[in-house]
Design a protein that fits this description.
11 helices, 10 strands, seven-stranded mixed sheet, three-stranded antiparallel sheet
Length: 337
């Protein structure tokens, strides 16, 4: 007699249904499912060997009945487990929830946004510059001589012979002036790159704010008033600013800006090297050669420009000892701000 003919589909089904009904835990139910519906179960082996239509239909009907019983039993066990947990477990909804630590902006980003708000309040527009620049915009347009130290590969990162990572945000001025006619009032903030050895005051990557104003009748007094407004907004209304002569290729005359020390209030301390003043950065009136480069007539318009480091602002504002702390990603340090 054929082996398939000796199989009793009804008997296999009843045996499987009894095992399923006897399962009282998910583990027991899974064991019953594997024993009666698994690859090596009698039902599955019989289905592989079936040769006639009637036997196949009977075995498939038995398989479907067992699968339905397993699904029903699993749902019943899940309902029973839920009812047990609802009856035995209690949640005090009056207790405070689990607190989740909230992040906050990095100190440099905080200073950047504050500077942006200050200049937006004065009517300036914010311009995004390119971090990868050409030597034409970083050097030539800014009136830097062929032998200027900034052009050296020891100072600037070169991508190719005429492509560099910007060492300052000044090229944003040139792009803005080429794109529009005066008046121009803009600031550009972003990352810059220089071949500096990391120490307490230098880092190869830093952030800078570059400002430019070009219009009829702009004078050095406008520059002083603008920067004094910025300094007092950042460091306090009592701060005083001092402007001393300097040299930058793209400004003439050029001035360096110092702010009265906010630790000793000008009396003299180690932070200001007992001078009462802290250096912030460079500025000056836009050199006529820069205006001519973009097609402006220096006889018709004039302007001022400045460029300051945002890390320097943060360090001076909070009395930080080392610029590298801003890049260390130490939460113990960053959570203070």
């Amino acid at each position: 007699m054929d082996t398939v003919a000796a199989v009793d589909p009804e008997g296999l089904k009843n045996e499987a249904l009894a095992a399923v009904a006897a399962a009282h835990t998910p583990a027991e139910l899974d064991d019953a499912r594997v024993a009666h519906l698994g690859r090596k179960s009698p039902l599955k082996l019989a289905l592989r060997e079936v040769r006639d239509r009637e036997s196949g239909m009977a075995l498939n009907a038995a398989r479907e009945a067992v699968e339905a019983a397993v699904a029903d039993r699993q749902a019943a066990l899940e309902r029973a487990e839920l009812e047990r947990r609802l009856a035995t477990e209690h949640v005090d909804v009056t207790l405070p929830g689990t607190p989740h630590t909230r992040g906050h902006l990095h100190l440099v980003t905080q200073v950047r946004r504050e500077v942006e708000d200050i200049f937006l309040g004065m009517g300036y527009e914010i311009v995004d510059g390119r971090e990868v620049e050409t030597t034409r915009y970083l050097f030539d347009a800014l009136n830097m001589s062929p032998n200027h130290p900034t052009r050296s590969p020891q100072h600037t990162f070169y991508v190719s012979e005429d492509t560099v990572l910007r060492s300052e945000t000044s090229p944003s001025q040139i792009h803005t002036m080429e794109a529009k006619q005066p008046p121009v009032y803009m600031v550009s903030l972003g990352r810059c790159y220089r071949r500096d050895t990391p120490d307490a005051t230098h880092f190869p990557i830093f952030h800078q704010v570059e400002g430019l104003a070009v219009d009829r009748g702009i004078t050095l007094a406008d520059l002083k008033g603008t920067l004094r407004t910025l300094l007092r907004a950042l460091f306090g209304e009592e701060r005083e600013a001092k402007f001393v002569t300097h040299f930058f290729p793209f400004t003439e005359p050029s001035v360096e800006v110092l702010v009265s020390c906010f630790q000793c209030d000008g009396a003299g301390c180690p932070m200001c090297r007992h001078s009462g003043w802290i250096e912030l950065g460079g500025s000056g009136m836009v050199d006529p050669n820069v205006l001519r480069f973009v097609g402006y007539d220096p006889e018709e318009v004039s302007g001022f420009a400045f460029g300051w480091g945002l890390e320097r602002m943060a360090i001076l504002r909070h009395g930080l000892p080392d610029i590298r702390d801003l890049w260390a990603n130490d939460l113990r340090f960053l959570r203070q701000f």
